[in-house]
Each structure stands twice: as C-alpha cells, then as structure tokens.
Design a protein that fits this description.
The chain has one domain. It has 3 helices and 4 strands; from the N terminus they run ααββαββ. This is B box-type domain-containing protein.
Length: 96
C-alpha cells in the first residue's frame, strides 16, 4: 500500500528519525493520530445497530473517523475513508 501526503497512515516527523531530540509536542508527532484510539478500542463484540444481521461482528476500524469498532454494515457509511480490518490468527491480534 502506498502512503501519500493525504493518507492517515503518514506520520509527520521533524528533525530526523523517531526517538530523536526532544521538542514540544514530539509525542504527538511520533505516532499517527488514530493509533491511540485504535489501541483503546474493543473489537469482536456484536454491533448494537445491526444486531439482527449475521455480519454484525465489529472487526473494522475507520482511520479517518476514529470513532470505535465497526461491523461490515456500519463500514458502508465510510466508503471513501481509510479503513482496516482487525483479525485474530493463532491467538494473536493482527491488522489487515
């Protein structure tokens, strides 16, 4: 996947490599803004909006909105956004 200037995957780092000199707001520049909310999100629960659907497991995340786990039907409202799917493989959490 290519990361362009508009991508939420792009990280703005001033002054060289990560972990370089200290500057005001360095922690906020080191990681993309969606990383902390993503790591604080609980996945694999049943969607409260689409509970009647057979595909209501919340295993998607919109990097543009950063507003919690989404099921595949909720994700349809984020068509033009950058989204990822969270999976579990061999008891290890992974991002696709």
């Amino acid at each position: 996947m290519a990361i362009d200037d508009e991508s939420p995957l792009r990280v703005n780092i001033r002054g060289g490599a990560m972990g370089g000199g200290q500057c005001e707001g360095a922690e906020n520049q080191r990681w993309p803004p969606w990383l902390k909310p993503l790591l604080e999100t609980s996945f694999f629960g049943q969607c409260k909006v689409h509970a009647d659907s057979h595909k209501s497991e919340c295993n998607m995340y919109c990097l543009d909105c950063m507003n919690g786990a989404l099921c595949s039907q909720c994700l349809s409202y984020h068509r033009d956004h950058h989204a990822i799917q969270v999976t579990i493989s061999s008891s290890t959490l992974a991002l696709d």
